[in-house]
Structures are given as C-alpha cells and as structure tokens.
Amino acid sequence: MHVAALRVDLLVPGAHSLKAKRSVVKSVKHELNATFGAAVAEVDHQDLWQRCALGVSLVSPQAGHLDRKIHTVRRHLEGRHDIEVLDVGVSFLEKPA
After folding, report:
1. What integer pLDDT is reported at residue 76 of this predicted model?
2. Of 34, 40, 84, 90, which is most buried with the most CB atoms under 10 A?
C-alpha cells in the first residue's frame, strides 16, 4: 500500500466573501473525491476570502500508479478556471520493512 498526502495552496480570485469561497472549495473537494477517490479537507486560511489550503490524501496499491494519480490531480486543479494553484507539497507514507 502506498499513501501520499498533498498540501495544495489555492487562490480563489473570484471570491468576494467567505460564502463565495466556500462554494468554490466545496466544488473542488467534491470533484477530487468523486473523480480520484481522494479524502479532502480544508486545512488552512479558513478566514480569508481568496486563499485556501487543502489537505488531500491518495492511496494506491502501486507506487507508479500513485505518482500518476498525484500528477493527474495537480493537472486537474490547474485546469480549473475558478482557482489558481499556488503551491503543491507532497509527502509519502513509507511502508515499514
């Protein structure tokens, strides 16, 4: 089993209120869960209108498949027009020997 934890920092340029930001963030979280089977939570910047940090976890039986999944998630987010990806950090959970 291979596990990756991503921290995705986003800009939501069209949000002019917390309610507008939450609508976009909810859509992003739902898409990542439905499309990639990812567990997603907002982990930082909850009080800012145009910033968001998401924690995304991905699990795969094979390391190569997990790498492709990470790349695909990032491309998917970068393809959205309502957000801007500022940074993506990836951590891997190693299986003990």
Report:
1. 95
2. 40
Cα 9 to the center of its chain, rounded Å: 8
Number of domains composing the chain: 1
Q: Which regions of the chain does DSSP assign to beta strands (E)?
A: 2-11, 39-44, 51-60, 84-93
Q: Domain holding 80: CATH number?
A: 3.30.70.1120
Distance CA 46, CA 18 (A): 8
Q: Which of 42, 71, 69, 56 is nearest to 5 (CA)?
A: 56
3-state percent breakdown (helix, strand, coil) of the chain, nearest 5 = 35, 35, 25
Segments forming the whole domain that contains residue 16: 2-93
- pTM equals 0.86
